[in-house]
Protein 1
Amino acid sequence: MFFTTKAEYGVRLLIEVGRQGNDQPVSLKAIADAENLPLAYLERIVALLKRAGLVQSTRGAHGGYVLARKPEDIHMDEVVLALEGSLAPMECFVDDRADDGSGRVLCSHHDDSGRGCATKLLWTRVQVGVTQTLAQTSLAELIDFQTRQLPRVGERPAPVQRTPTHA
Amino acid sequence: MFFTTKAEYGVRLLIEVGRQGNDQPVSLKAIADAENLPLAYLERIVALLKRAGLVQSTRGAHGGYVLARKPEDIHMDEVVLALEGSLAPMECFVDDRADDGSGRVLCSHHDDSGRGCATKLLWTRVQVGVTQTLAQTSLAELIDFQTRQLPRVGERPAPVQRTPTHA
DNA sequence: CGCTATCCCGACCTCGCTGGTAGGATTACC
DNA sequence: GGTAATCCTACCAGCGAGGTCGGGATAGCG
């Protein structure tokens, strides 16, 4: 289990908002009804998306949310990062790019200095792989997938040999 | 946080066992001391590895564990799967290959039949990506990485652009 | 034989986080 | 002013992660 329901609900929320176009905002109530999700919980989730600058809100009656950017420019690495708070595959991973901006990854394990844990190599690869996979999927693609309803073919995922070939 | 400490400790355990060669078994006590990990907890972790056929045990005094295969033939997808029990990125993912053996992935969400959740596309890609990344890393490679100790260069992981290029 | 090192196994415990609720403020359209 | 919506903070129950404990079975060794 990599991700929590925050990611699941948050992505669904973005899809619903994106399906509407930016002409008028979509209320959380409408999304909660459409996706059968708890409204109060959605409120907290959408706050994460707003804080990350992915949606914009309009308060008051007939208010709601619109996408802050075009769906083509919203990629899932940013979305999941905003929702989950981190993309580290392991507890001891700290993403530290405030120092020199080079995006290096630390392993905060106790005796790291002595031995240099080899698991770091593994988790680094996993993190890179996941981030890439997420970055290659745009919100536009998900909306498109949801819209043209692939009646029954969608049952079968891509074969394990082939890397998902981009948006 | 994708993985728990079971994966972390289990991989370290395999590395320690693999470093020794198969001439004589390695005791958990030795591993617990070397890696500074709780012995009682390691016992439960190694049980998972044994059940998956990755290590073999010898009981009694001077007993311990040896690898069941050559390190080159032990790949991390199998290891992490044995330790974590599942590689599903989301709760609603059920890996069901008992039916027809085709390895299709189900999403057990409530109204899946009606809409076909688009998030399934996303999580499927992530799962495939992670599985591939893990499968491309062998235990032999981790042992090698640990052994030739890269005194200080190991601080910097592989750049984010490049997919890890095989074992 | 008995000691001791080791694997084996199940019960138990604690703590933090996930998932969700409650209740209220604030804002804006009509 | 009513009402529909966003916002915000506190609260709560359940569960799994991470780890401990105690005891059993097993095998080398003097």
Protein 2
Amino acid sequence: MTGTERDTALHADVDRPSRREQILQAAAQLFAERGSRAVGVDDVGAAVGVTGPAIYRHFAGKDAMLAEMLLRISERLLAGGSERVTAAGADPVAQLRALIDFQVEFALENPALITVHDRDLGSLADADAAQVRRLQRRYVEVWVAVLARLHPTSDPAACRARAHAVFGLINSTPHSAGQLDRPAMAALLTGMAEAAATVC
Amino acid sequence: MTGTERDTALHADVDRPSRREQILQAAAQLFAERGSRAVGVDDVGAAVGVTGPAIYRHFAGKDAMLAEMLLRISERLLAGGSERVTAAGADPVAQLRALIDFQVEFALENPALITVHDRDLGSLADADAAQVRRLQRRYVEVWVAVLARLHPTSDPAACRARAHAVFGLINSTPHSAGQLDRPAMAALLTGMAEAAATVC
DNA sequence: GCTGCAGGTTAACCGCGGTTCACTACGGAG
DNA sequence: CTCCGTAGTGAACCGCGGTTAACCTGCAGC
């Protein structure tokens, strides 16, 4: 434990990112573009200016990289979502708005992570995949709790399907990259998501 | 050219599907579950009761299988979408409803194809990928034309982003599989999509 | 100034999976 | 009956890519 080491699981040192963080970020970008299976260890290395095997100084293997990437994403979503919803007070409309703002913000800020998150879950070892799915499920339940109060007559299954549909809507950002500038995109998605989440 | 041969590019013989069709369908299922790169030729063969190399009697290779799969999907979407929108008359509201019904129907009927369609596009050879993207673009433009009449003040880029968001919403079905029965799911998605497409 | 470790490098290893090959079984046409 | 094209099999080939090994380098601390 040196003095400069951080809790790499949660906050990346954005000023002068450690090699480890550089690798994770570059890998996320490449994985998003081509899919994790199509990206070689050498590619990831080259993207940060080292050779392939150098990766093994920082990660146990390619799988471990992907696992940490997906776990972090799921954790950030769950933590951020929970935080925002409690900060929004007791009004379910305000809570929904807070969740939508958060998800839109995250999707616009990290399109690559969004892409990898639901494309490459299947390439994970069973244990890691289960862990990620657990976190995802908890995040979904945060949404479901809010949606259930907005739609008292809907059963939980319907709320869950509704939540997934709103995710799909917001997470479409990687598909419409460069169409609109960020504020316009955020406004459009927020409006659409609120309408979709509220209708009926 | 024997007398029993059909135009395999567009209509599958659903009664007694040819081996070729069986393979494509099984491959779509497997690709959707694990991703095309993670599925071996032997797996696809086994799924239709045949060894791996037998595939090469029907396809030039694994890539050709995926290419045909994605091309067919894109063609079906474009053809179906165009057809429905002309059948809906001149009213843009009716046209939108027709497009949404079509997309919902397709997504609920073919969740595996939906998944493969936007997950494995990157594993295609450049020429095939370009062809698929061309078809996708034309399908998007069908939507954009309708959305533009509903939102006269929006520029085309905003309509395109809106179309992608609606696709994301509807194509979320693979993520909420088994939550609701088909009619309930269709009603929910249709309502949400209309709200999202119309708002503002 | 040695020592040691963190971080790299190049070369080699090796298993997996797509593809090819040589051969077989069979059903229909002449 | 023979011939031939279609569909399938098991074995072999081979290249790619993840991983490991052995060796280098520079800087921190005694």
